[in-house]
Design goal:
The chain is mainly α. The protein has helices at 14-22, 45-59, 67-99, 123-135, 137-153, 158-167, 174-185, 197-204, 212-222, 224-240, 266-276, 293-304, 321-340, and strands spanning 110-113, 250-251, 261-263, 278-280, 286-288, 291-292, 306-307, 355-356. Helix 3 runs parallel beside helix 6 and helix 3 crosses helix 11 (266-276).
Amino acid sequence: KQTGEIVSSEDLDVDTTGILYITKPLRERKTLNKVAEAIPQPFLREQATLFNDDIRRLLLYKDKLPRAVFIDYLRILCGFHLALYAMKLIYLLPKMVDAGSRQVEDDWSMLVDVTDDLDSIVSAYACKDVERMQNGIGKYIRSTYMADIIQDRKPCSIDEALRILKEDNNKSDGFYESVLNGIRKDLPNSDEKEFDKEDFREMLELFPEDDYFDMLVHVLEKSNLGNYQYRYLHEFLDAVAMKNSSSMLLADSRSRRHPRRGALGSKLLETLVQLLVLKEKPTGGYETRSLSIDELISEIRDRYGLIINGVNEKRFANADVEMNEAFRTNVEAFKDKLRQIGFYTDMSDACILQKIRPRYKM
């Protein structure tokens, strides 16, 4: 506080020392201890809580990991959770709009191909899950416009907006009509432009005459704004899922033969294993434990919704021989990947001895 600078010591690692040299001296802000204003709760609260818990677990390694490795884990974890959050939102928001409430079942899941082989037997099934998500993006964007329009008409919480959409939305309300008329007024009269008033009229002629709400939603969907949203949402997902890298949650190739599919990069798997070998104690705090292959696969499924072995999944209850062979191949590839990152060694053919052992004891 007296010098206004960071206190350095001789046992700092290279990364921290570098950061100290390139940052300006810290100055105490008078508002630092001021009580923060109410922060809006995340839309998917349970997903945000899971992210917080993973960060908490990662912080337990801060004195055991080299700083560069720790920062890399943190980067991977942030991207991973942003990707999960966005994918779940795309899947769940339309269901919430239909139900008129955020209280819907979170049954989202995604099959991940861990073989790193674009032509693997499991890749076709993993591609279908991502295709389902991509096909749902249009409905997701439509749902965001529906909720936003309700909140523009009457400032309210998202929970109230969802309720109004389900139970109390007058689609012929004058507010929707005035917004629609404002858009129509700004359009040119002739066909000098790419889109004019006549095109606008033809776009909406199939709607009921007084259904201004659905007309407005449709106009926003078909506008350049809607197109940009669709385009940039794809780019955002590719970025946070670190597509085609060692930290990937999504993978594809430049060829149309290999569309996007769920994947599990070696660095991402290493990060998740470091977190999942930690078990919360009843008395508080965490301790490390060993896990069997099946337990680790089950933890990844239950915690993050990522399916490696779908044998016991309800939606794969009618799996044929080929699909079961795909799951078996995926599990074998999962074991190989764990060997590569140093978490798994076959001590015996007995399943009970095939354990994932923590790298650091706590």
